[in-house]
UniProtKB/TrEMBL annotation, chain A:
GO cellular component: plasma membrane
Pfam families: BPD_transp_1
Protein name (database record): Multiple-sugar transport system permease YteP
Species in which this protein is naturally found: Paenibacillus abyssi
Gene Ontology biological process terms, A to Z: transmembrane transport
Gene: yteP
CDD domains linked to this entry: TM_PBP2
TrEMBL record, chain B:
GO cellular component: plasma membrane
Transmembrane helix as UniProt keyword: yes
Family statement drawn from the similarity comment of this UniProt entry: Belongs to the binding-protein-dependent transport system permease family.
Protein topology in the membrane: Multi-pass membrane protein
Organism: Paenibacillus abyssi
Top-level taxon in the UniProt lineage: Bacteria
Domain ABC transmembrane type-1 as annotated: residue spans: 75-277
GO biological process: transmembrane transport
Residues spanning the membrane: 20-43, 72-98, 110-129, 141-162, 183-208, 258-277
Pfam family, one: BPD_transp_1
Record-linked PANTHER family: ABC TRANSPORTER PERMEASE PROTEIN MG189-RELATED-RELATED, POLYGALACTURONAN_RHAMNOGALACTURONAN TRANSPORT SYSTEM PERMEASE PROTEIN YTCP
Subcellular location: Cell membrane
Descriptive protein name: ABC transporter permease protein YtcP
Key words, A-Z: Cell membrane, Membrane, Transmembrane, Transmembrane helix, Transport
Length: 317, 292
């Protein structure tokens, strides 16, 4: 039996392969369209991923990856014994908590408020204005803050002085770094963040509100019992994405705020990678730091996704 | 819809409208302060701090920043990088997005997974830097464009848009003897102008705003785009660092009005395209929905 069966199988496989070949040739124009993008992802995303192996070497630029010495987990061991590691870990976790507790709810509340506005003109006006900062670079956002907060004639410090209080050196202080960071994140992103919630709210059946009003529900109860539950799954998806960003936290933003006076609270993984790696030339060690950060980020997002599915939500993949 | 007209509901509306109005005002006031400050004199700014409408108008700050080469040159660099970058990104993104929108394509899911995975995990700064260096892009304008040519997010939005075009279009074009390139350029792209406009504007804003790429890859201060110059003038010159590269022809520390004028110059192009952005982005951002 087996010979015939095997023979048959080979024939089918041959047919399948030639079918595949035919389809590929038929679609060669489409593959050609994908090719440049494919090469881009290969060179600038996947080759760097394979470049992570230098975390296990003492990489020397003049020796290249092929000839550099392999050192195993040396750099990871160093990372976990470095006193700076715990400072960075603490800073990252604190900024993450700040983000989650004080930033994440803001777009939801803003969207709830905007959703209650019935005058189309007023709604459009507010939306137009609060979306603007999202399109400004972090350099612009931070520059405007610096001009306003500066000790030397910044408007905020002039106000403080006018009230007879002592000027505050916001830009070079440990205590003011976190509030300043949070305020800038809210200023730039909260308005833009409402878009996705507003879209979800627009899809809610107006009949629900009608019915609840007949039952005597006031505006707050309607928000609480209709609007919020209707956007629950959107909130959860965005929460997962946020958790995936736990270790990102807007490096470009923090790098601008970082200075010798607030390093104690402002240094995060990426700023450390930049200083140690490109400024001081410790390529392998800083790659190990970045690698550690990426892995933890990946694990966290998978965990959050698993958790969302566990409680009966859809998750992101 | 029956409107709720109880006093409680009216009170709610009153509070809601005024809070939103205050939030909108708070968002925009810093910008107005900076624009106003840039159009007045140092003396006026020193006398009364809370300038929203200057009593003394002056172009001194602008005259000053354009009397030096630094800002003008950086604006040229930013403009060039934005135009070239947007074109390059759109070409790569739309070609790949269209290819991936074809449901009958073998290997499509593998390539999609490859793209999505880069959103969750990356090689990070140092390995990417080494690749850019290996390719000889250090100190070239291409370093601001090529390493970030495709945003996975924009790619997915475009693919979803192409996917939602009616299937019949392609089939009838094929029957009329149109090849794949013909379908893309004569049918799909003309029908997708809203999506293309949106994504182009997103790319353009990103290129205009780019600064860290320049710090990473351009050692030559003569090649810096305006965002880096802005950072040098405002942030570093706030007494936080001694690095003054790229601003040799500036009086240090720069006056407050000068800083404000540079902020305005770096912001203006975005404010100019903002009305167009606004017309499209709500649509565009939702085209793909966040699930991709």
């Amino acid at each position: 039996m087996s010979n015939a069966a095997i023979g048959n199988k080979t024939v089918t496989r041959q047919k399948q392969t030639s079918g595949l070949m035919r389809r590929i040739i038929k679609n060669k124009a489409i593959y050609l369209m994908i090719l440049p993008g494919f090469v881009y992802f290969l060179i600038f995303k996947y080759i760097p991923m394979s470049g992570l192996i230098i975390a296990f070497q003492d990489y020397q630029p003049y020796l290249g990856i092929a000839n550099s010495e392999w050192v195993g987990m040396k750099h990871f061991k160093r990372l976990f014994t470095e006193p700076m590691f715990f400072t960075i870990l603490r800073n990252t976790l604190v900024l993450f908590a700040i983000n989650l507790l004080f930033y994440f709810p803001v777009p939801i509340i803003l969207a709830l408020m905007l959703n209650e506005v019935r005058r189309a003109f007023f709604k459009r006006f507010v939306q137009t204005v609060i979306y603007i900062p999202h399109f400004m670079s972090w350099v612009i956002i931070v520059s405007i803050s610096f001009v306003m907060l500066s000790m030397d004639r910044g408007i905020i410090n002039e106000l403080i002085a006018m009230l007879g209080l002592e000027k505050i050196n916001f830009l070079m202080s440990n205590e003011w770094f976190r509030p300043m960071y949070l305020l800038q994140v809210i200023w730039r992103e909260a308005g833009w963040g409402t878009i996705i919630y507003l879209a979800a709210m627009a899809a809610i059946d107006p009949g629900l509100y009608e019915a609840s009003r007949i039952d005597g529900a006031n505006r707050f109860r309607q928000m609480w019992h209709i609007t919020l539950p209707s956007i629950r799954s959107v909130i959860i998806v965005l929460l997962i994405l946020k958790i995936g960003d736990v270790l990102e936290l807007g490096f470009e933003h923090i790098y601008l705020l970082l200075n010798s006076m607030n390093r104690e609270v402002a240094e995060i993984f990426d700023t450390y990678v930049y200083t140690a790696g490109l400024r001081q030339g410790q390529f392998s060690f800083s790659t190990a730091v970045g690698f550690f950060k990426s892995i933890v980020g990946l694990i966290l997002v998978m965990f959050a996704n698993w958790l969302a599915k566990k409680i009966g939500e859809e998750g992101i993949y | 819809m029956v409107r709720d007209r109880s006093w409680a509901s009216r009170l709610f509306d009153g509070l809601n409208y005024s809070t939103l109005f205050i939030i909108a005002l708070a968002t925009i006031l810093p910008f107005i302060h900076v624009v106003a400050g840039s159009f007045t004199t140092v003396a006026e700014l020193a006398q009364k701090q809370f300038v929203l409408i200057p009593t003394v108008w002056s172009l001194d700050a602008y005259r000053y920043i354009f009397s030096t080469n630094t800002v003008f040159k950086s604006l040229l660099v930013s403009t060039g990088v934005t135009l070239a970058g947007t074109l390059f990104s759109m070409l790569l993104t739309s070609l790949m997005a269209y290819g991936l929108s074809r449901k009958d394509l073998d290997g499509r899911n593998i390539i999609m997974f490859m793209v999505l995975f880069t959103m969750l995990f990356s090689g990070g700064m140092i390995p990417t830097f080494l690749v850019v260096k290996e390719m000889g892009l250090i100190d070239s304008y291409a370093a601001l464009i090529v390493p970030t040519a495709i945003s996975a997010f924009n790619l997915i939005i475009m693919r979803n848009f192409f996917q939602n075009l009616p299937d019949g279009l392609e089939e009838s074009a094929k029957i009329d003897g149109c090849g794949d390139w013909g379908i893309l350029f004569r049918i799909v792209i003309p029908l997708s102008m809203p999506a293309i406009a949106t994504i182009s504007l997103f790319y353009a804003v990103t290129y205009w705003n780019t600064y860290f790429q320049a710090i990473l890859y351009l050692n030559d201060a003569n090649k810096w785009p305006v965002q880096v110059i802005l950072r040098q003038i405002v942030i570093l010159a706030s007494g936080l660092a001694a690095d003054t590269s790229g601003m040799e022809d500036f009086v240090r520390p720069p006056e407050q009005t000068v800083k404000m004028a540079v902020i305005v110059v770096a912001t203006l192009p975005i404010l100019l395209v903002y009305p167009f952005l606004q017309k499209h982005f709500a649509k565009g951002a939702l085209l793909g929905s966040i699930k991709g």
